[in-house]
């Protein structure tokens, strides 16, 4: 399992801009990049529509848009290295629902809009394991 995710500052800024734009609803998106021996390297951000019935409290990425993002990554020679969503009122830790519904083995980034912190977790088997998030 990856132990670190490297996120360029320009992508981090784009992620925060998306989170602010969608507030008070949660935002959701995918991140494409490369896996290297020392961790995952993010290269492109794919904002996705949040189609959860209650988007202020939950997120659900539009599956058609997610599929298109995955295809776009493939066309660019990238793979899915992370998923992100926001908690407009914090905290930057995964909710019970977040850990229960996590379907991918990639890191999940959570942006706490209130507190301004961004953290990354692996969410295997209903557990949350924080990993190193390096911004460069
Ligand atoms: Zn959440």
Automatic annotation (TrEMBL):
<keyword id="KW-0479">Metal-binding</keyword>
<dbReference type="InterPro" id="IPR051929">
    <property type="entry name" value="VirAsm_ModProt"/>
</dbReference>
<keyword id="KW-0645">Protease</keyword>
<keyword id="KW-0482">Metalloprotease</keyword>
<dbReference type="InterPro" id="IPR028090">
    <property type="entry name" value="JAB_dom_prok"/>
</dbReference>
<dbReference type="GO" id="GO:0008235">
    <property type="term" value="F:metalloexopeptidase activity"/>
</dbReference>
<dbReference type="GO" id="GO:0008270">
    <property type="term" value="F:zinc ion binding"/>
</dbReference>
<dbReference type="GO" id="GO:0006508">
    <property type="term" value="P:proteolysis"/>
</dbReference>
<keyword id="KW-0862">Zinc</keyword>
<keyword id="KW-0378">Hydrolase</keyword>
<protein>
    <submittedName>
        <fullName>Mov34/MPN/PAD-1</fullName>
    </submittedName>
</protein>
<feature type="domain" description="JAB1/MPN/MOV34 metalloenzyme">
    <location>
        <begin position="4"/>
        <end position="133"/>
    </location>
</feature>
<dbReference type="Pfam" id="PF14464">
    <property type="entry name" value="Prok-JAB"/>
</dbReference>
<dbReference type="InterPro" id="IPR000555">
    <property type="entry name" value="JAMM/MPN+_dom"/>
</dbReference>
